[in-house]
């Protein structure tokens, strides 16, 4: 047999082996039962890409690496079993898997090759939420309470840990978090933050913010420069001033008996005393 024939045979064998490996790995990840698989699910006009939870592979499957996961993802997205619309918006769902910026870029590259667009990341991990927000994706931060039933939620009153973001939120980015959100940067017009706790902006607030999204009227919104498009606390809504002031200083928005009020941050002590005086006492319960 000639050297050329040997090389061609070796290349064909390598290609066949790679294809078989991808298919076998796909069976381990994508065709098993339970939460041990990569799943796709339509949600309205969007596509959910659901990653398997860490440490939740089936017993019959071999241990996996990140490379294996990407290989299966690419195999399933480009496979004949799916026909996606071009430009379809994808929401990545990864409740407990820790993802960094490089891994998010890996997922984005695979989706882009299939003409799909990664827009939002749903995660229960703070590090993943920060990496996703820094990369410019909208973020839904879940808490452990989101997976509890109603009775368990009623017994669980601990609020999620604060989410710290050292970045500027660009237009189109939305951050959702079940606790307090602290942004060391600006919140630009067209961006938004929804939090069950307080919202603290160490910069200019020019977007839309909603504190106390779970109905907590004791929450506050603070910013070094308050120029919001829209402010919400609980179920109350207020619009930003049409004419910005000549001089800016740190301000805080909070609830009063007459609705949302904005005061200088130096009045914070009086604000807290007012809220404490209005809060129900244990005797009234």
Automatic annotation (TrEMBL):
SUPFAM superfamilies in alphabetical order: Cell-division inhibitor MinC, C-terminal domain (SSF63848)
Domain Septum formation inhibitor MinC C-terminal residue range list: 166-260
Biased composition (Basic and acidic residues): 139-156
UniProt entry tagged with the keyword Cell division: yes
Residues forming coiled coils: none
Transferase as UniProt keyword: no
Start and end residues of each stretch annotated as Disordered: 1-39, 137-156
Keywords assigned by UniProt, alphabetized: Cell cycle, Cell division, Septation
GO BP terms: cell morphogenesis; division septum assembly; regulation of cell septum assembly
Compositionally biased tracts (Acidic residues): 1-23
Family: Belongs to the MinC family.
Function: Cell division inhibitor that blocks the formation of polar Z ring septums. Rapidly oscillates between the poles of the cell to destabilize FtsZ filaments that have formed before they mature into polar Z rings. Prevents FtsZ polymerization.
PANTHER family for this protein: SEPTUM SITE-DETERMINING PROTEIN MINC (PTHR34108:SF1)
Assembly and interaction partners: Interacts with MinD and FtsZ.
Identification of the protein by name: Probable septum site-determining protein MinC
Species the sequence originates in: Limnospira maxima CS-328
Taxonomic path: Bacteria, Bacillati, Cyanobacteriota, Cyanophyceae, Oscillatoriophycideae
Gene field: minC
């Amino acid at each position: 047999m000639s050297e050329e024939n040997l090389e061609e045979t070796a290349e064909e064998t390598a290609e066949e082996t790679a294809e078989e490996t991808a298919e076998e790995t796909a069976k381990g990840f994508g065709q098993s039962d339970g939460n041990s698989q990569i799943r796709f699910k339509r949600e309205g006009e969007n596509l959910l890409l659901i990653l398997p939870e860490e440490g939740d592979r089936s017993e019959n499957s071999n241990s996996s690496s990140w490379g294996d996961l990407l290989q299966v993802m690419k195999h399933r997205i480009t496979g004949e079993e799916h026909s996606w619309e071009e430009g379809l918006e994808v929401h990545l769902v990864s409740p407990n898997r820790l993802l960094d910026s490089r891994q998010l870029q890996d997922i984005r590259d695979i989706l882009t090759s299939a003409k799909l667009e990664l827009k939002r990341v749903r995660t229960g991990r703070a590090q993943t939420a920060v990496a996703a927000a820094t990369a410019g994706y909208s973020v839904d931060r879940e808490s452990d309470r989101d997976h509890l039933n109603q009775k368990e939620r009623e017994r669980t009153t601990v609020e999620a840990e604060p989410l710290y973001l050292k970045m500027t939120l660009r237009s189109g980015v939305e951050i959702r978090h079940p606790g307090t959100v602290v942004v060391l940067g600006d919140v630009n017009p067209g961006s938004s933050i929804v939090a069950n706790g307080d919202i603290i902006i160490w910069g200019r607030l020019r977007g839309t913010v909603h504190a106390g999204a779970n109905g907590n009227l004791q929450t506050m919104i603070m910013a070094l420069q308050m120029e919001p498009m829209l402010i919400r606390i609980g179920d109350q809504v207020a619009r930003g001033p049409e004419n910005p002031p000549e001089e800016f200083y740190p301000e805080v928005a909070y609830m009063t008996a007459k609705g949302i009020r904005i005061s200088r941050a130096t009045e914070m002590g009086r604000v807290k005393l007012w809220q404490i005086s209005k809060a129900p006492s244990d005797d009234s319960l």
